[in-house]
Structure formats: structure tokens, C-alpha cells
């Protein structure tokens, strides 16, 4: 769901490969590939959700009822829901000239890279023909790239805080409805108890550098990355340093959040930490409403808004999610557009697996349906979840530059040294600023 992964040296080569594939297929919007004698078109939909996670049989059957001339073949490239492995397989398929029609990406960075590589087709002609206002139709749609839309938002993931309500009740703490990072820190102290292997921590921060190393940046109205949308450095924002200070204080001084050293050495996971009740609070995305992995909670799960930096701030948070697209080499772009428009509206409501970005979705009804679909519906405090979702304000989050992964890797290397106690904060920030600026300079257009 939220970390930016490296494509490595393959990316540059893929640009050339995708360009060759694109040229060989041209600009056709319809053709004979995937079309039967009776005029029925079959679309291949590549993604990383297995049948259980995607409920594809039901979704596709409902689509085909109202679109008898379009068949959809669900093609999950992995069975373990791993988006990174999916990307590797997708890139190989694209380079081999495999039929691709509908694609999906879990984050805007990986999506933007495939746009740059020529794998994804622009949607402008279809949007204009329909008369669609993307901003009015969807919450937090992906920004235009070079003036064009290349994808529509599917599920909407909202950053919030997942809470063990039983732990809060035992500590005499209410479920927060409006709080700051200072409040979060105080909650964590009061929720922490015990020592050694059985210690209950008040908080857990995972390893994703674009989330857990910039916690305070993510609560701003805009400029929520360590580089700006125009590719310049944003490392001078004091909230970058403050984010690291917060973690160091909680992990090394207060002892109220799981130390990074334990997370790395023991390969800890946020689901394991939360569902085992080793940690009481985890800032995470709203995918955790249903995506519990192998766990079943033995306590009540509650939800709180993403913490604000100051009491007077508005409750901004990151709201993004899956982006669904049309492949550049698809011979059935018009039919593919019909499917992605349907899927991002009615389809997600039928799927009942996630919160849609579609503004016409009834949040309360969606939550009721999602919770009812879980293994233990009575474990979810729906009241706090609905309140949190309905009151969140989306931060402005543009499409990041293609080198953003390299930037976060450089920042992560320095931040880890600080959080592991191997380097002071001033040196960390100085080194990180220098490395980020070097990457920015090397990628100036």
C-alpha cells in the first residue's frame, strides 16, 4: 500500500522496450486482437489481487450483464498480493509484447513511471467525449501528467491511526476525534507498559520511508514529499527534521514506540505488531478496514484522524489509492475505458472490498458493507471509522518525479543512522539535504 519501491536499472531499459512495443502497436483504439467472430471483445485486466481479495467473479459477472459485447479476463500476476512482484511481472509482459488492456497500480509513483515509459495510454479523448469532470467525480484523482489524464482512481486509501480500543479503555483514554502529534505522543506513553519481550508499546512506526520518516509532512495541506512537484528539494521544510525528532524521542527517550532497531533486526510487520497487541496504535492506511492478512482481532479496533501538527490546523491527510489505466498497446481502448469507468463507480460498490474514490458513494453504507464482509464484524468500531473518514480533508499530492524513489532511498539511509543512534540529528539532516540536492541536480531537465 504505501512505500515507493525501486525499479533499479531495468527502468531505463524498459523505456526503450516500451517505446518499441508502443510503436509496433501504433495508436489504434480498436482492432481484431481479442475480438471474436460475433463481435465480442475480450479485455485482459492485469493486477495483483487474487480472487478472494478482488471478488472478481462477482464484479466481472455484473459488468458483463450490462455490457454483453465486452468480456473481461481477470489476470492476477501474483497470488500473494505483492504489488512489487506484480510490477516486475507486468514489465516483463510489456517487454514481450503480451496483450495488455487494463492495468492497475497501487501508488502514483509506480504509475507515473510507467506513463513515462510509454506503457500507459492517455484518457483525454474519452473523458472529453463523455463530458466527465474528473475532479467533481472522484476524491483525490491522480494529477495530470504533462497536461493529460492517464488513470482514474479506484479504491481510496486515507491515512489515519488504527487503535486498540481495549487498550485505550484500560488506560482511561477516549478515542480521539481531533488531536495533534503531541497528543499522540502522550497517548503512547500512557499506553506503554511492561518490559522485555512482553512489553506493550503505545505505538509502532513501520519502515516505509515516504510515510514513517516524514510523519509530520503528511499532515500538511500540500508539499507533502521531500521533493516538490517541480522536482526541487523540499528538505528545508522544518517538518522533515521534526518528523525524525518525534520518532527518536518516542523510540529512544520515552520508550513508547517500537525502536527501529527491533523493527529491522526482527523484521517486524505492522499487522503482526497490532493484531498481536504488542503495539496499541499504528498510523496506517484505511486498507486495514478489511485487509487483516492472516489475523483475526481479539479486541475492538477503533480509528482516529491523522494527527495534526498544530491544534489550529485543519485535519489534512494523504488520500490516495489504486489507479486504474488503459495500456498503450491495447487494441480496445474504448471498451477498456467503459470498463474502468464502470469499475471505479458501480464496480467498487459491488466488489465490497474497499472504500471507493467515487464521490457518489455512501461512506456509511460502504463501511457497513465492508465491515460485514470481514471475519469478525463486531471487532470494528464503525462509529469512529465513519467519523474519521467523513471528516478527513485531502492534502494536495501531485504526481511525483520519476527519481523520487532514489531521493527517498538516500534520505532513508541517513535517517536510519539517526534513529539507530549512530549519527546525530544535525549531521543527519545536513547529509540528507546534500544527497537529495545532488539527485535533484542530476535529474534537472
TrEMBL record:
Q: Which InterPro entries match?
A: Bact_solute-bd_prot1 (IPR050490), SBP (IPR006059)
What would be one Pfam family of this protein? Answer: SBP_bac_1
Coiled coil ranges: none
Q: Which CDD domains match?
A: PBP2_TMBP_like
* Lineage top rank: taxon: Bacteria
What is this protein's name?
Sugar ABC transporter substrate-binding protein
Amino acid at each position: 500500500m504505501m512505500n515507493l519501491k525501486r525499479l533499479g536499472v531495468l527502468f531505463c531499459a524498459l523505456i526503450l522496450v516500451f517505446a518499441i512495443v508502443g510503436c509496433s502497436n501504433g495508436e489504434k483504439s480498436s482492432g481484431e486482437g481479442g475480438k471474436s467472430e460475433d463481435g465480442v471483445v475480450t479485455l485482459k485486466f492485469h493486477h495483483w489481487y487474487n480472487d478472494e481479495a478482488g471478488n472478481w467473479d462477482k464484479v466481472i459477472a455484473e459488468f458483463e450483464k450490462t455490457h454483453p459485447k465486452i468480456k473481461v479476463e481477470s489476470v492476477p500476476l501474483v497470488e500473494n498480493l505483492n504489488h512489487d512482484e506484480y510490477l516486475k511481472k507486468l514489465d516483463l509482459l510489456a517487454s514481450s509484447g503480451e496483450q495488455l488492456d487494463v492495468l492497475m497500480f497501487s501508488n502514483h509513483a509506480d504509475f507515473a513511471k510507467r506513463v513515462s515509459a510509454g506503457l500507459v495510454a492517455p484518457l483525454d479523448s474519452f473523458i472529453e467525449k463523455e463530458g466527465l469532470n474528473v475532479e467533481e467525480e472522484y476524491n483525490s484523482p491522480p494529477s495530470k501528467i504533462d497536461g493529460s489524464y492517464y488513470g482514474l482512481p479506484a479504491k481510496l486509501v486515507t491515512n489515519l491511526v488504527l487503535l486498540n480500543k481495549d487498550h485505550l479503555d484500560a488506560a482511561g483514554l477516549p478515542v480521539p476525534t481531533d488531536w495533534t502529534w503531541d497528543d499522540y505522543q502522550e497517548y503512547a506513553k500512557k499506553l506503554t507498559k511492561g518490559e522485555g519481550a512482553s512489553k506493550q508499546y503505545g505505538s509502532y512506526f513501520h519502515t516505509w520511508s515516504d510515510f514513517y520518516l516524514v510523519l509530520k509532512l503528511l499532515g500538511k495541506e500540500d508539499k507533502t514529499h521531500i521533493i516538490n512537484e517541480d522536482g526541487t528539494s523540499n528538505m528545508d521544510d522544518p517538518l522533515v527534521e521534526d518528523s525524525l525528532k518525534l520518532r527518536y524521542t518516542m523510540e529512544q527517550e520515552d520508550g513508547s514506540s517500537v525502536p527501529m532497531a527491533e523493527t529491522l533486526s526482527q523484521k517486524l510487520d505492522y499487522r503482526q505488531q497490532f493484531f498481536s497487541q504488542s503495539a496499541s496504535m499504528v498510523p496506517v492506511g484505511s486498507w486495514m478496514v478489511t485487509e487483516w492478512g492472516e489475523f483475526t482481532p481479539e479486541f475492538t479496533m477503533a480509528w482516529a484522524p491523522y494527527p495534526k501538527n498544530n491544534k489550529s490546523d485543519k485535519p489534512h491527510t494523504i488520500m490516495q489509492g489504486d489507479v486504474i489505466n488503459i495500456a498503450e498497446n491495447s487494441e480496445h481502448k474504448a471498451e477498456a475505458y467503459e470498463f474502468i469507468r464502470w469499475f471505479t463507480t458501480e464496480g467498487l460498490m459491488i466488489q465490497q472490498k474497499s472504500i471507493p474514490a467515487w464521490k457518489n458513494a455512501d461512506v456509511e453504507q460502504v463501511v457497513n458493507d465492508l465491515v460485514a464482509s470481514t471475519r469478525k464484524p463486531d471487532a470494528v468500531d464503525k462509529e469512529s471509522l465513519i467519523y474519521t473518514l467523513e471528516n478527513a480533508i485531502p492534502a494536495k499530492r501531485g504526481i511525483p518525479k520519476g527519481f523520487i524513489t532514489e531521493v527517498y532511498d538516500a534520505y532513508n539511509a541517513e535517517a536510519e543512522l539517526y534513529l539507530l543512534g549512530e549519527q546525530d540529528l544535525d549531521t543527519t539532516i545536513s547529509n540528507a539535504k546534500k544527497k537529495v540536492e545532488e539527485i535533484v541536480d542530476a535529474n534537472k531537465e
